[in-house]
Design goal:
CATH topology of the largest domain in chain B: MetI-like fold
Structural class of chain A: alpha/beta
CATH architecture of the largest domain in chain A: 3-Layer(aba) Sandwich
Protein name (chain B): Carbohydrate ABC transporter permease
Oligomer: heterodimer
InterPro entries (chain B): MetI-like, MetI-like_sf
Largest sheet of chain B: none
CATH topology of the largest domain in chain A: D-Maltodextrin-Binding Protein, domain 2
Shape of chain B: globular
Shape of chain A: globular
Distance between the termini of chain B: 31 Å
Largest interface: A-B, 58 and 41 residues
Helix content of chain A: 40-55%
Family (chain B): Belongs to the binding-protein-dependent transport system permease family.
Radius of gyration of chain B: 25 Å
CATH superfamily of the largest domain in chain A: Periplasmic binding protein-like II
Strand content of chain A: 5-15%
Strand content of chain B: under 5%
Strand order of the largest sheet of chain A: 8-11-7-12
Number of strands of chain A: 15
Membrane topology (chain B): Multi-pass membrane protein
Keywords (chain B): Cell membrane, Membrane, Transmembrane, Transmembrane helix, Transport
Chain lengths: ~550, ~300
């Protein structure tokens, strides 16, 4: 009953909306809806369907003997299960993929299905390059995927809907990537008799001790304080070696569109809190608490791996990036803490509800293949069969990868792992991924930090994801795509922002240059963009 | 030559030597560093302990490469490209430069022809039209996509044309009187006399073909067809972490970039050019000067 009702609603909605858009084909929609009643298998296509995809792989992709990018255990599994035949149109390493993809999209030489980011999704939707998935979604989607989408209050569906048509299957943004935590070497803290820092003042005191008191005990004060990176001061998602944690402690969310107290849209890099944070970072840099050469350093990871630095900001999954450090020095005991604001609150900005979009090229004959694929992929992610357990979810050999999970998946996995280690949950009840992590955790417990690869995943889930449990004051971004003026001006505005911020921190501009920056930013298109966004939100 | 041995001259000379030595060092340092890293121990390289001398000398990286089919495949693509592309460039350069070096009285549309090719040097249709063109010509994933778009090296044509012009007119007049046609003139008079210039343009086109990576990146749909520089480029470019998912990121960290391996790839990548340069350099310096001044 329910499904039929929904279908009716969707049909009505699509009629209304397509009626508004210029290239409406209401007859077509009606025709499709008429044959809706036949039952379909949401996990298998009746006939083999060949789908052209493009792939982003790691540069040193290693294929098993006899396997190719197009024909391997992943694509074979997909074909056996769903009749979805993968045809690789082209592939490139993740470093070059974006460039190639942009060129292909600009030349309208797109694959049948692909996974894109929000900006690209909106651009393709606006230029009518995408197939309408509204009907096939309703007809084929599995209850599990619906459940995960509903867990975001259906925000992901809203994000994937354009002009009333569902044009993509969204991936759920895992909110765990949002908080930026301070990763600290506990062994250094212990040696110096310090407590883990909870606010900016304590952070400064700790860094001062790290710089001056020779925490690595080699007899010279040659360690540095906080690391930074040469790309940006604050990343949007989970950035390593940035100062997002400091900005957030001043209730500032750089590069994010948020609403201020009066309900107006503001750009997070231009709020007064950002100036305060910049002032603090600037002072820290002047006092030598931040790596003097951070703006020139190509890979701050080296500092961490070689034991020169013992504190930096990163997301919950940072331990995977710390295997070098643990390999070099098994004493390196990394722990994570959140830095609180003056009122003692932990501030974070949530990530967009949808993190990527699986889209189908307009005119592709079997749009339902996308939904069937998503159903299969969702199943193999959570409840894999014997064959599926051998495969790694998220591996780049899958024809398309997406994330359908609860937005708080990392925290859930933390609980599961803690319970399993405490014997409250039987290891057999864990899913494939968590079973592996559980085994690694046992091995690491027996010989702590001897095998860095066994250490990383359990440590990320136990410590990194454990930090996420505390109460946080989360600010929702109001917009994360691109507007008309942004297309033309955004690159310049970002350059202005980045250069000003770096110069302020490095001391070549006074702190008050921030005010000039805000004025310039508004004058050079910022104000127009804000009004465009306000209009966009009202829609 | 009388040596001026006053104090100030010596000082100037000495400081010039120091300055030159410094500049030489600055140019050599990155190469020495790369070579040193390629022969170092993996862990030492990752921790940034290597400077200009290998730490924990070993050749493990090189033996890995010699068994790496992707690397060897790309190396072969590059070699093929240099041969095919170099020959095409050579033929076209010579065949264009000769008629263009004649007076307008001998070659009626010479000036409009000249303008036609100069325009292509200054303006281009942009990358998207080129991409679409290559797609419709069906050249993706073929060697032709790498050699045909750059088949006419306009700069080389002009260089060689100017060189041909500097060959005394009397020679071609004498040839005419003895009944030599244009082909005979080109083959028996001009080409033998232009060895330095020909070596120069050949070197240019070889180096160009060997070093370019961008065309390989956009026209090759599978990595097996990447030329060597495109293959190397993807390893040494800093990944924009914002553009990849955390699953990929985690996988990347698991593998931790292998600097010694990358360095040895770069070293092997520059070897061929290093080897042929000394042999052609003689002509190169000679040729580029001769071609540049027109009487």
């Amino acid at each position: 009953m329910n499904v039929k009702k929904m279908l009716g609603l969707v049909l009505a909605a699509s009629l209304i909306f397509t009626g508004c858009s210029s290239n409406s084909t209401p007859e077509n929609t009606e025709g499709q809806a008429a044959v809706d009643n036949a039952p379909v298998d949401p996990f298998r296509l009746p006939e083999p369907v060949e789908v052209k995809v493009t792939k982003s792989v790691l540069p040193d992709l290693d294929l098993k003997d006899g396997e190719t990018i197009e024909d391997n255990e992943y694509t074979q599994y997909v074909f056996d299960k769903t009749n979805f035949k993968t045809k690789v149109m082209w592939y490139a390493s993740s470093t070059d993929y974006d460039q190639k993809m942009q060129l292909a999209v600009a030349s309208n030489d797109t694959p049948d299905m692909m996974v894109v980011n929000e900006t690209m999704f909106r651009a393709m939707a606006a230029s009518d390059q995408l197939e309408d998935l509204t009907d096939v979604y309703e007809k084929y989607v599995s209850p599990e995927i619906k459940k995960f989408y509903a867990a975001t209050d259906n925000k992901v569906i809203d994000a994937a809907t354009y002009d009333g048509k569902l044009l993509a299957l969204p991936s759920v943004g895992i909110q765990a990537d949002a908080p930026s935590m301070l990763w600290v070497r506990q062994d250094w803290l212990d040696k110096l008799g310090l407590k883990p820092p909870t606010n900016i003042e304590e952070l400064k005191a700790m860094l001062k001790a790290f710089v001056e008191k020779d925490p690595d005990g080699d007899g010279t004060a040659n360690t540095i304080g906080l690391t930074g990176n040469n790309v940006n001061l604050s990343a949007v998602g989970g950035g390593l070696h940035d100062f997002k944690g400091i900005f957030n402690a001043f209730n500032a969310y750089p590069q994010t569109w948020v609403k201020d107290e009066s309900g107006k849209v503001v750009y997070g890099s231009t709020v007064p809190g950002a100036k305060e944070a910049l002032g603090v970072i600037r002072d820290m840099y002047k006092e030598g608490l931040i790596d003097k050469e951070f703006a020139l350093r190509k890979s701050p990871d080296e500092l961490v791996a070689s034991g020169k630095a013992g504190a930096f900001f990163g997301p919950w999954w940072t331990p995977w990036a710390l295997t070098g450090s643990v390999k070099n020095d098994p004493k390196a005991n990394w722990q994570a803490y959140m830095i609180k604001d003056k009122k003692g609150k932990v501030n974070i900005a949530s990530l967009p509800a949808a993190q990527s979009y699986l889209v189908v090229k307009k005119g592709f004959e079997h749009p339902e293949a996308a939904v069937v694929y998503a159903n299969m992929y969702d199943e193999v992610s959570h409840t894999p069969d014997a064959e599926g357990k051998k495969l790694i979810v998220g591996h780049s050999l899958w024809p398309l990868t997406m994330i359908t999970d609860y937005p708080d998946a990392a925290t859930n996995k933390h609980k599961l792992l803690v319970d399993a280690l405490a014997g409250k949950v039987k290891p057999e009840e864990l899913d494939g991924e968590m079973q592996l992590v559980y085994e690694q955790a046992l091995k690491d417990k027996a010989n702590p930090r001897v095998n860095a690869d066994d250490w990383a995943a359990p440590h990320a889930y136990l410590v990194g994801a454990g930090v996420l449990k505390q109460e946080m004051n989360a600010t929702d971004p109001v917009f994360s795509a691109s507007t008309k003026t942004m297309e033309r001006r955004w690159a310049n505005l970002q350059k202005l922002e980045n250069e000003t911020f770096f110069k302020i921190v490095l001391g070549s501009l006074e702190l008050d240059a921030f005010d000039t920056f805000v004025e310039d930013w508004k004058a050079e298109g910022g104000s127009t963009i804000i009004s465009e966004i306000e209009e966009e939100i009202k829609k | 030559m009388v040596q001026n041995k006053s104090w100030t001259t010596r000082m100037t000379k000495g400081s010039l030597y120091v300055l030159m030595a410094l500049i030489t060092f600055l140019s050599l340092a990155p190469i020495l560093y790369t070579v040193a890293v390629s022969f170092s121990d993996k862990a030492a390289a990752a921790a940034g302990k290597v400077t200009l001398w290998p730490v924990g000398f070993n050749t493990a990286a090189y033996s890995t490469i010699l068994n790496d089919n992707n690397f060897l495949g790309s190396f072969f693509v590059s070699v093929k490209r240099v041969f095919v592309g170099g020959i095409i460039n050579f033929l076209i350069t010579v065949l264009m430069a000769y008629p263009l070096s004649r007076q307008a009285s001998e070659f009626r549309f010479r000036d409009s022809y000249m303008w036609f090719i100069i325009v292509t040097m200054l303006f281009s249709g942009g990358i998207i039209p080129l991409y679409i063109l290559m797609k419709y010509l069906g050249m993706f994933d073929t060697i032709w996509a790498l050699v045909l778009p750059t088949a006419v090296p306009v700069f080389n044509v002009i260089l060689l044309m100017n060189f041909f012009r500097s060959i005394p007119k009397e020679l071609s007049e004498a040839g005419h009187i003895d009944g030599a046609g244009p082909w005979y003139m080109l083959m028996k008079v001009f080409i033998p006399l232009s060895a330095p210039a020909l070596a120069t343009v050949t070197l240019f086109s070889i180096v160009n073909h060997w070093n370019s990576f961008f065309d390989g990146l956009i026209f090759m749909r599978s990595m097996e067809n990447y030329p060597l520089q495109t293959y190397i480029q993807q390893f040494v470019v800093q990944t924009n972490l914002q553009n990849i998912s955390s699953v990929e990121r985690i996988e990347m960290f698991k593998k931790l970039s292998n600097q010694t391996l990358n360095a040895s790839k770069i070293v092997i990548g520059m070897l061929p050019i290093l080897v042929i340069y000394p042999f052609l350099q003689r002509y190169f310096i000679h040729g580029i000067m001769l071609g540049s001044v027109k009487e």
